[in-house]
Amino acid sequence: MAKIDARIPEGPVAQKWTNYKKNQKLVNPANKRKLDIIVVGTGLAGAAAAASFGEMGFNVKIFTIQDSPRRAHSIAAQGGINAAKNYPNDGDSVNRLFSDTVKGGDYRAREANVYRLAEVSTSIIDQCVAQGVPFAREYGGLLDNRSFGGAQVSRTFYARGQTGQQLLLGAYQALMRQVNLKTVKLYTRNELVDIVLVDGKARGIISRDLVTGETQRHFGHAVVMATGGYGNTFFLSTNAMGSNGSAAWQAYKKGAMFANPCFAQIHPTCIPVHGEFQSKLTLMSESLRNDGRIWVPAKKEDAEAIRAGKLKPTDIAEENRDYFLERRYPAFGNLVPRDVASRAAKERCDAGFGVGTTGLAVYLDFKESIERLGKDVIEARYGNLFQMYEKIVDDNPYDTPMMIYPAIHYTMGGVWVDYELQTTIPGLFCAGEANFSDHGANRLGASALMQGLADGYFVLPYTVQNYLADDIKTPRMTGDEKEFVETEKAVKDRFEKIRNVNGNRSVDSIHKELGLVMWDFVGMARNKEGLQQAIEKIRAIKKEFWSNVRIPGDKEGMNIELEKANRLADFIEIGELMAIDALNREESCGGHFREEFQTEDGEAMRQDDKFAYVSCWAYKGDGQEPELHKEELKFEDVKLIQRNYK
Amino acid sequence: MEKNINITLKVWRQKNAREKGRFETYQVKDVSTGSSFLEMMDILNEQLINEGNEPVAFDHDCREGICGMCSLYINGRPHGPDDGVTTCQLHMRKFKDGDTIWIEPWRSAGFPVIKDLIVDRTAFDKIIASGGYVSVNTGGVPDANAIPIPKPDADEAMDAASCIGCGACVAACKNGSAMLFVSAKVSQLALLPQGKVEAARRAKNMVAKMDELGFGNCTNTGACEVECPKGISVAHIARLNREFLKAKVQD
């Protein structure tokens, strides 16, 4: 087993980033013009990085699968962005945000990266305000904050329930400014389908124009992937329909390690599943837990009557309600971290206290806060979310409690990166949700936006420059080199192979089958036997895909089924690796709950002596078992303790 | 309560930008009124694939009303017969058993059809690139609380900033004007001290780009505001005109 070196700078945790910057190499302006950087993905991390590279004077090419960079799924983030500004004077600090994040991640994140994240968080807010992001403000004209799960301070900045949208538009506008200045060339409806290695270094990508169906060869001295997470392995998730793990998976197949694939976050507050044709799950922001109280009936007969439609939630008297989060976790109450809240909801529903027609739902009730604060205040805080809920469910949450249930939301696992966000392939960097680095086994609310922008604005501009400083004499390649030509041919063969299966099943029907296996066996609660079964089932689905998928339409031009099939082929393999990783990790931590490892009252039980490491998986070929490498996690500044939100 | 309905669809099919399009008729049976409109389209596509036909191409992504990717002109209205929603938030409970539903792409000179119901909206990106930003680089900016901003201004800027760039305003406008889209960005940034500095220049550049890309003029019909899924007000167009005039006076 090779030792994994994260190349963490020397010094105490609070000095590491400063030390790194002090010693890093720079590229002078004349040389920057000679260096090309490819950025894949236009979400917060990708757009922020590409804009910053362009401003610095590098030549940038950026790719998005959507029709515009502004559609990236960062746009859907609702609640907010964390930053250790301590404007409310409630005891926050860089150190506090750092330790909350390490604890929230159940001690499975790398300390040095998390500290840097907390350190640059304050600059993010400054940057966004300078760009014209309309954050919520107090009457005095200063910025407002709200609290979020896993923290006892208010450090979350927000723009109504559309924070992700506003931050992304800020980054998108900065990006379009560089497009206008011709430092960045934008490729829309264009998908990375492979990575080109020359002498072991990433030197470009093969992309596919989704309108013409043609492949293209693009050179870059370095390649940055910011392509999001792989939550859609589950078919039903809160991710956008197009969100996929294929870029990360191609990197893995080319030699980048994949870290902690089993760490997937189940978000507690989503609108429950309604029927077999459901295409996605809609998130209701975690910020709602600031003012909403989560409950189920305390009596089983009441729950049964509600499910049968004989009682309404408003009929249940106060003393017959079980506010189970407040009961189990009095210190944090409704604001426990997401993994804890999700499992608690599942526990009540499994015990027969669930509501809704399926029994797989709990209530999120605003009655008390409407009485306390008035309907106006609640409307100002959450109006767009309430409207969204009403349009989907046809119930008015001002009058009757919302129904919610956990759903797959975010993947903490991803491409392994070192301190510089570089993968195990030199010259290939990975940022945002696509990498594994900052959230350990569970991400705290409002930290995804923070990480995406931290990576894009304040980390990659330093680390990629450090890498490129050794590359100033490397001439541009034309894309006609044999490595480019061969990789392109392999891509074309792969697409031909998918088209030639010519079977009987639609892509979606196979994807749904995969999703059910994932949810049942690799979902909120996992065990050894179930995971072993899941691996067998996923291998059977892989066989089914490659022998029975049907792709109508032509090779030329836009073919959406072909795009989806290519991504599904990768989701199937990602699903298998998630199950393998979950089977290997014989402990419960964060979003990974192994039923064999729990305390008497059902809390997750880590096995620090055996599993305080990052699982790094190396690809060994199609049909071969992947190889496990371990990055040992050292905790020098945060003490490892059992997480306690009671 | 939810029930199942049968519907007839008249869907615009067009192989690519060059070929002529036509309406095709499809029957979709037993659709739950609790399904979203796009889930109904998924059911249609599953049916078409199983019959060996090519599914209908349409744009969609987040399916929660924020990415602005979905479009569709449904029974003559952008985003269909519900107010304040995008197509992905439209639900089948707005339709009755036996209904015939006409589905077309956005139709506007600024948005050419790519395939079936998918149009090219890159013109919007070009308009933003021409000036829809504050010209600041990463780093070297003042503390976020250095400049207080009156809450009403911040709130109004947020109202304007909630535009999702879907293009319904253009599709609804008889002149194919992009004024609501442009004004939302100009207004958001002009309201904030950070964006005020270059407000007039921004307005001038964005309007010039809009004209160049073949969008029509605004004749104040207000159709854009009615169809905007985010309720962006035409009052922003007035602010755009003020900034535009300032720029002209300065020239």
UniProtKB/TrEMBL annotation, chain A:
Which GO biological process categories is it annotated with? anaerobic respiration
> Which residue ranges does the record assign to the FAD-dependent oxidoreductase 2 FAD-binding domain?
36-449
Q: List each copy of the Fumarate reductase/succinate dehydrogenase flavoprotein-like C-terminal domain by range.
A: 511-645
Instruction: Tell me the organism.
Output: Alkalitalea saponilacus
Q: Which GO terms describe its molecular function?
A: electron transfer activity; flavin adenine dinucleotide binding; succinate dehydrogenase (quinone) activity
Gene3D superfamilies given in the database record: FAD/NAD(P)-binding domain (3.50.50.60), Fumarate reductase/succinate dehydrogenase flavoprotein-like, C-terminal domain (1.20.58.100), Succinate dehydrogenase/fumarate reductase flavoprotein, catalytic domain (3.90.700.10)
Q: Which Pfam families match?
A: FAD_binding_2, Succ_DH_flav_C
Keywords in alphabetical order, please. Answer: Cell membrane, Electron transport, FAD, Flavoprotein, Membrane, Oxidoreductase, Transport
- Uppermost EC category: oxidoreductase
- InterPro entries in the cross-refs: FAD-dep_OxRdtase_2_FAD-bd, FAD/NAD-bd_sf, Fum_R/Succ_DH_flav-like_C_sf, Fum_Rdtase/Succ_DH_flav-like_C, SdhA/FrdA/AprA, Succ_DH/Fum_Rdt_flav_su, Succ_DH/fumarate_Rdtase_cat_sf
Q: Which cofactors are required for activity?
A: FAD
* Family of this protein: Belongs to the FAD-dependent oxidoreductase 2 family. FRD/SDH subfamily.
Q: Where in the cell is it found?
A: Cell membrane
Taxonomic classification, please?
A: Bacteria, Pseudomonadati, Bacteroidota, Bacteroidia, Marinilabiliales
Q: Protein name, please?
A: succinate dehydrogenase
Membrane-related topology note: Peripheral membrane protein
Quick check: keyword Cell cycle in the entry?
Answer: no
| Coiled-coil intervals, chain numbering | none
Gene Ontology annotations for the cellular component aspect, listed alphabetically: plasma membrane
Transmembrane regions listed in the UniProt entry: none
Q: Main localisation, per the record?
A: membrane
- As recorded in UniProt, its EC number(s) are 1.3.5.1
What is catalysed by this protein?
Answer: a quinone + succinate = fumarate + a quinol
Q: Where is the active site?
A: 338
UniProtKB/TrEMBL annotation, chain B:
According to its UniProt record, which cofactors does this protein need?
A: [2Fe-2S] cluster; [3Fe-4S] cluster
Q: Name one Pfam family in it.
A: Fer2_3
User: Where on the tree of life does the source sit, at the highest rank?
Assistant: Bacteria
Q: Which GO terms describe its biological process?
A: aerobic respiration; respiratory electron transport chain
| Domain 4Fe-4S ferredoxin-type, residue spans | 154-184
Q: GO MF terms on file?
A: 2 iron, 2 sulfur cluster binding; electron transfer activity
Q: Which Gene3D superfamilies match?
A: 3.10.20.30, Alpha-helical ferredoxin (1.10.1060.10)
Give the similarity note.
Answer: Belongs to the succinate dehydrogenase/fumarate reductase iron-sulfur protein family.
Fetch the PANTHER family from UniProt: SUCCINATE DEHYDROGENASE (PTHR11921:SF41), SUCCINATE DEHYDROGENASE IRON-SULFUR PROTEIN (PTHR11921)
User: This protein is called what?
Assistant: Succinate dehydrogenase / fumarate reductase iron-sulfur subunit
